[in-house]
Predict the 3D structure of the following.
Amino acid sequence: MNLNTVTTVLRPESAHDIAEWRDGYAWLAGGTWLFSEPQLATDTLIDLEGLDWRALEIAPDGLEIASTCRIAELYRFDAPREWAAASLFGACCNALLASFKIWRSGTWPRSAGISVCLCLPGR
């Protein structure tokens, strides 16, 4: 889907580069959901790729997944054996209706996370 209302793409190098949020802004990580339907109120995309976040990081309270984490990265993640639910990562990735191109460019929280939350179709 073309986003013909978008006139500006910002590429911050730090989260501090976005000092103020205004109507019309939209975060861009992979864009799978963002580009799936018209975004009539959006005129500016803020591309998160330049923030150089680690895709996946094991933290004391679980797994931190960056907004820029690709679906393929989550699928390949080698979780600690004691994580009982870790086998669901691959199952959730496989449940998405997405080509290999989306797996390599689509990000997990915005594409798959929204797909799950909105009950968008999977395989």
